[in-house]
Specification:
307 residues; 0% strand; mainly alpha
Length: 307
């Protein structure tokens, strides 16, 4: 019985860490290129809303996910235009995207669906059974309860590690975030690399939002990201902008969220509000006590101008 409960907690932790993984790795790519992206929350909201809207109109959750990724890329391009081309303050530009996302997605719910606060239900991604892996005792249950979206999230860390540290693309990306002028001197197009990184960041963050609406809930609810974009930022900083530690931080916060849900279910004698805040409390403690001197990219937040 304890094994079943423990495995159930692990599976719930994977579910709840998936949107954090997408957003955190999106932020990781953008900030490794030298552009601060605190617009992850807004990009997730746009992804969640667009995914459900298109899935409802076209009766296809796959097209909904694709549309969410396109809109995420557009928000990334907007941020890149402000931050890279115009040289605007990156934090202010990203905050504006967050505020627009909060207001616009909430305002459009009633005109589109005629009901305040939430959309009708739409089709969701189904679970897939992986042959052989699902036959493993106890842990095999994990491989029968995941969707293709969760598998993609679990692959983010190894893929990001290989790309960042084992490919010329990753070397150029890191060079743009550390010494953009030195990178430009050897032929790297810094502006192009930063645009690509920020657009990719928006796409991946939007996938995290679409996961909430098209996999977990099957509908859009106003403000449904509930600060997960900022929690992903905390995971990225806690992981010191490195793929494997960022992955571990997202799993930690996801497990904390799963634990508080389980605690509410079994009736732990703690205030409901305190249990809901548990993942954020864990993130705060982690940032305050374990991060130390986080080695952010040297040129992060700095406008690049060609000589």
């Amino acid at each position: 019985m304890s094994e079943i409960l423990s495995m159930s907690l692990v599976i719930s932790g994977i579910y709840l860490s998936t949107p954090l993984l997408f957003a955190a790795f999106g932020g990781l790519v953008a900030e490794r290129s030298g552009v601060i992206n605190i617009a992850l929350e807004g990009q997730m909201l746009f992804g969640a809303f667009t995914g459900v809207a298109v899935a409802w109109w076209l009766n296809s959750h796959i097209l909904g996910m694709f549309a969410a990724l396109v809109v995420g890329g557009m928000t990334g391009a907007l941020l890149a235009w402000f931050a890279v081309t115009l040289g605007a303050n990156q934090i202010v530009a990203a905050t504006a995207i967050n505020l627009i996302a909060f207001g616009l997605t909430a305002a459009l719910v009633e005109p589109i669906w005629g009901r305040p606060g939430s959309s009708p239900s739409v089709s969701k991604f189904g679970r897939i059974d992986v042959p052989l892996l699902s036959d493993i005792p106890v842990v095999g249950r994990v491989f029968t309860d995941l969707t293709v979206v969760e598998w993609a999230a679990l692959l983010l860390a190894p893929v990001a590690f290989v790309v960042l540290y084992r490919t010329p693309l990753g070397l150029r990306l890191r060079a743009c975030g550390e010494e953009p002028h030195a990178a430009a001197s050897v032929g790297v197009k810094v502006t192009t690399v930063r645009y690509q990184a920020v657009i990719f960041s928006g796409i991946v963050a939007a996938a995290g939002g679409a996961y909430l609406s098209l996999v977990q809930v099957g509908a859009f609810q106003r403000g449904m990201t509930q600060g997960r974009g900022f929690l992903a930022l905390a995971a990225m900083i806690f992981g010191k902008w490195r793929p494997v530690p960022v992955f571990a931080a997202c799993l930690l916060f996801g497990m904390a969220d799963a634990f508080q849900l389980r605690a509410q279910t079994v009736g732990v004698d703690l205030p409901h509000e305190l249990l809901i805040a548990l993942p954020y409390v864990v993130a705060l403690i982690a940032l305050a006590t374990f991060v130390g001197r986080a080695a952010a990219p040297a040129a992060i937040g700095k406008t690049y101008q060609r000589d």
